[in-house]
Amino acid sequence: MSIRTEKSKEPPNRLPASPRRGVVQDLIPLRSRRSGPEGDAGPDPSAGGKIIMKFGGSSVADAGCMREVAALVTAALPRSPLVVLSATAGTTDSLLAAARLAEQGDRDGALLIGRELQSRHRGIAGELFPGGLPGELDQALTAMDAELDLLLRGVAMLRELSPRSLDAIASIGERLSTRILAAFMQADWVDARTVVRTDDGFGSALPLFQELSALAARDLAPLLGPGRAVVTQGFIGATAGGVTTTLGRGGSDFSAALFGAALGVADIQIWTDVEGVLTCDPRVVRAAQPIAELSFKEAGELAAFGAKVLHPATIKPAMEAGIPVTVRSTRQPNGRFTTITAQVRTGRPITALAGRGPVTLVTLTCADMHTQSGFLAMGSLFQVLSRHRIGVDLIATAEDSVSFTVEAGLPLEALLKDLEGFGAVGVARDRTIVAVVGERLKLTPGVTGRCFGALREINVEMISMGANEINLSFVVRREDATAALVALHGALIESPMREDGRSAGGLSHAERRRGTNIVQFG
Length: 522
Ligand code: ASP
Ligand code: MG
Fold this sequence. Notes:
single chain, alpha/beta, VC0802-like, six-stranded antiparallel sheet, 15 helices
């Protein structure tokens, strides 16, 4: 038997950093544009429906980037864009660092970071307005400088930094970037805190969608219209009492989806530094290619298993509202992009690969696992795991053992001690989960055979087919992960399979047979 637990929903504040600018473009040759109703590249001014255009920190890193963003938004003006911005690259990190210094009592160090941020933003604004800043922008920047100064002094004086204070400080980043872009584009600027109503879970607040929608309908929708852009912040919100909150690190994508769902737009565009979602991390597999269409479920699996573009929590509001999310590149706005929708229509069995590690593989062996007392042991196992607050990614059971993977770096000692009460405990550290993801995986014969063929030189320590049957995962040693991903990518994606399981050359009978069982090595 092989089962897999639903990947616990991680808050967006555990998102990994987005891939470095430029890396992907160096590796992927620009192919000809796709064409047809879903393949038109770039913001198509003639296509109908309102849009959200979300730009991440690297897309607004400097004045040049801001100009590019402004040009993209201008081209999309007929579609009444709502522009959702992140803080400029590195700014949120700097704000958090300043807050920590203040907490440690290093007031001057904290204030120095604040001054650097102010001068960097004034530098960007100065380049965009060589003749001098418009008065309103100048005042807004000065006011935020004073606000940050005050907040940091307060934290330093008390040497106390609550999540609430941290959110107030972090919110400055998005407010700065959006002020500059809105002034440059002469667009309306909306304070997202007046719309994004959240609970008071500071640091990773939960949006209150009904209230958010009502506020968006009342205050935001009337500002939107063809020929105009409205600029607002990602990441930040406020409680009913008006206290500033944030949605967690990397939360701007989530904001974009929330705004999009609340306003019922036609498309939520996530502009980033890669040409959409790729079939694998291009730093690991050079032949990685952008995926034209991805289902929400696949995107969720990929994000949970290490892909770096979108997080499942991020796209949930869009999924629920049935709004497609497109992931596009600011570097190559007319290049390829990925459309994420509820349903994919490509018929392709394997969509992408992801790798996540390091993880630790724990194997518990005890006699009679499947007798009644064995089932009780399973129950106790889950109780022990939950008592230690240890989340499990993959689980597989055999006659006398159960194996599961946990995030490396968790304090496992106490857990392992408790588990020893059940039987022999084996621990294998430095493992990587390699996930093969595809909506039609389960319908395609021969996929597992191909996987085994590709992995024949690699020692696979555990295999698990996700309960949702769109994810086939292998646990390998960390040092084998790259070879595993390269081999799987070659076998499953570079030589595409048809839905009947055949490639151009077809699969051998032996290959097919090898693919019929999902086995598990404890
Ligand atoms: N600026 C925030 C962060 O760096 C939110 C985001 O960029 O999505 O986490
Ligand atoms: Mg981001």
